[in-house]
Amino acid sequence: MRCLTVEAEFDRPVDGVRLEKGYGTPVGESAGLPAWETGGRDKFGTPNAGVLTVVPPKIGGECTAIHLLGIFQCELKSKDRNGTAPGALVTVTTESGKAVTYPLRGGVHFVSPYEVETINRSFGDGISVSTVGKVDLDRSKARLDLVSIDIPSIRDLTQVQFSKRGTGAKFYVFDVWFDFENRAGCPFHHQSKGVSLDELGAVIRVGDRVRFQRALKQFEGSVSVPLMELDEARGIALTFLSVIAAALLELGASREMHRFVLTAARKLEEASTLEEVQTLTARMAEDVTRTLFDRDDNPTHAAIDRALAYIDKNFAKSLSDAELADAVGLSTSHFRYLFKQATGQPFHKYLIAVRLEKARRMLLDLDLSITAVARSTGFLSSAHFSRAFTGRFGVTPTDMKASATRS
After folding, report:
1. pLDDT confidence of residue 238
2. 209-222 and 230-250 are packed helices; what angle lies between their axes, rounded to 10 degrees?
3. Please, which residues have CB within 8 angstroms of residue 349's CB and are 6 or more apart in sequence?
4. Among 53, 187, 257, 261, whose CB has the most other CB atoms within 10 angstroms?
């Protein structure tokens, strides 16, 4: 697992308190840049509302900590209307809209920057404070502190806000950092939002060029993040290629396909960068599936791609090749010819294959009856579904469901 600390950008005023060169922090320096301050003005000269909004960088991995470098002032004699000592609030928001708050309390997490020389405290609530230097402020030397907040690992972090609470505190924020850890796991896990490994095999077996390209892009994205370790990228790449090879063997590929996996492993071992792993894998995946997904640049093939995408989303509906041909602007006869050329099978046979692959996934993942799965995948008869399923996978739907229950 690799940890990366990344500096975030935020709107700063044109002028204000600045750090002298030499005050380092987790990464980088803020020397020469004006601090954001409560009660200050933004870059347009407009008074701010006392709330600093920071958007974390898009790095990948899970955010595990937030660091704020600043001057945290506190007048303990001043209290707000509720009698609460002044403080601040750090609010962490995710893509789903969930917000978690971390209060910074005056007299606990921070004290006057003029009264104490240094601080090095951990408070047992996931918040720690350490002094890193001093800054010229109001003709005096003020303490410069680093506030670190440990947070539950968050992958979909969208923003962090720092806001003032009460009337007796003032804050200057020079810099904000985020810690990220790579805990991505397999990008093809069936609970991911993309194409799972099991679905990848189905994509190959039914000849779905559209979803294959989606899976390839999914792989490329998974190994291009800064947190990815080279050996992990090699492992993901080899798994990806092995599933493709296994599906091709099921379709009748020669035993040379086993040698393909061994050759791929050797080439990936020689790759010295993430970019090389990405490029090598994409090239090998496209080469080994060329006969399956072979196509030229004829514009009508874009119509077939639209048809494949439509089938993937509407496989349970009553679909006909004439209906799809009309929807993508082709004659029925031309559509049938192009569809078989693209997928290697007639439209109806392709549609049944897609439905059966979807049904297999439902039986393994969901607690549904055989009848419910049959209806959910477009089969009007449970008997027809059972015969077709057994013919494709060599086991009955009941046995498939039982195997999922035992595992």
Report:
1. 93
2. 160
3. none
4. 187
